[in-house]
Amino acid sequence: MYDSVEEKRPYGQGDASFQAAGGFDGIKALVDDFYAAMDTLPEAAHIRAMHPADLSTSADKLTRFLCGWLGGPRLFSEKYGPIAIPKFHQAFPIGPAERDAWLLCMKVAAAKQPFADDFKTYLLEQLYVPAERSRSRD
Q1: Spatial CB neighbours of 38, under 8 Å, sequence gap ≥ 6
Q2: Are 97 and 69 in contact (CB under 8 A)?
Q3: For residue range 55-72, what is the model confidence (pLDDT) as tens digits?
Q4: Strand, helix or coil for residue 114
Q5: Model pTM?
Q6: Contact 118/131 with Cβ under 8 angstroms?
Q7: Roughly what angle, to the nearest 10 degrees, separates helices 117-133 and 96-111?
Q8: How far apart are CA 26 and CA 84, in angstroms?
Q9: 106 contacts 34 by C-beta, under 8 angstroms
Q10: Per-residue pLDDT tens for 26-60?
Q11: How far is CA 130 from the centre of its chain?
């Protein structure tokens, strides 16, 4: 008799990261907690001020971006078109302090998720890349 054992794919391979994040619903919860952190952390007040009062579109865009970025469906481009992180963020004064405040909000949000600890670490390490690409100044 043959026992089929499905190997766990490493994060970043196929949709492994998307699945580790809980799919769309898990990513939506992460994004909701991310913006809650941005609304409450004093260290994030300056980046919160760069966002509109109503965060619903921002949250939708980030959720959809993260779905595709984590190997799931490309929901951002389906609704909003091509992703141009650096070009979009050029209009905002984003330097290392703003990048780090954004990452802090993600760290706080990730800590609240039921993700595996190794996935939380992986996610935060990987999120540095788009956060750094968003910088428009030194």
Answers
A1: 44, 47, 48, 51, 105
A2: no
A3: 999 999 999 999 999 999
A4: coil
A5: 0.91
A6: no
A7: 160
A8: 24
A9: yes
A10: 999 999 999 999 999 999 999 999 999 999 999 99
A11: 9
